[in-house]
Amino acid sequence: MIPIKIDVSDFAKKFDFTTQEVRPLVVNTLNALAVRAVELWKEEAKQLGSTRNEYINSIYTLKDGENAVIVGLHGKLPNMLEKGTSPFDMKSGFEKSTKKTRTADGGWYLTIPYKWYTPDTVEESTPKIPADIHKIVKGITERRGVAVSELPSRYQGVLGKRQRIETATKVWDTYTHKSTLWEGMVRSPKNQHSHYVTFRRVSDKSDPDSWIHKGFIARDFLGKALTRMEVNSIVLRSRDNFLKEMGF
């Protein structure tokens, strides 16, 4: 989050304008700066893959008093991407979810959806379905999902795997999931043409190492956007337009 502030007191004094008279200059300059900051920020964020839309939709502007506007970022995941975060255990977060189901023995479980895109999806960083698997899953209309036996034989034993994660204080060894990557895949009910979904179950009995996220490297899209901001040009253009409207 950054505040964009405008001080036109010297300018008003030089041209003998009142505070009310220079108010349109302040408003127009703030708006122009905020619009340009958001525009550049979104351009930087386009390099993201499957998280791009969520990140871009989380960018916001907010008026802060008479002479300032705030440009910021809503949401936990977008801010983790922007600022970076160390490896962490996702299971502790899942346990707090209001969508989890309680079991008779006092435990809990939660079903986690994973989105997969079709082979012709342009974005390089999105998870894509292999073409020969796509030929199979796109023809299945039932909600039961694809069985392992329906997958091409070379994929039937392919298990998901998380690589070893090592930090200065902790090490998580390589972890191999218990099921194949594409087992149970179904078409997304929200958009049948663009992506499909598989599911993983997490519970209080899950392996302690089964839900470790490798973390995010800080992307600093806002910082990169600000280095491209033509602040002086925007301010001077607003000033010149204002003076022209005032008859100077």
How would you describe this protein?
With 248 residues, the chain is of the alpha+beta class. The protein has two domains: 2-83 and 217-245, no CATH class; 88-213, no CATH class. The protein has eight helices and 13 strands. It has helices at 9-15, 23-45, 52-57, 76-83, 90-95, 131-137, 221-227, 231-245, and strands at 2-5, 59-63, 68-73, 88-89, 101-102, 108-117, 159-162, 165-166, 171-172, 175-180, 186-187, 195-203, 212-213. The longest helix has 23 residues, at 23-45. The two termini are 36 Å apart. The relative contact order is 0.18.
How would the blueprint of this fold be written?
Elements: E1 2-5, H1 9-15, H2 23-45, H3 52-57, E2 59-63, E3 68-73, H4 76-83, E4 88-89, H5 90-95, E5 101-102, E6 108-117, H6 131-137, E7 159-162, E8 165-166, E9 171-172, E10 175-180, E11 186-187, E12 195-203, E13 212-213, H7 221-227, H8 231-245
Antiparallel strand pairs: 1-3, 2-3, 4-13, 5-6, 6-12, 7-10, 8-9, 11-12
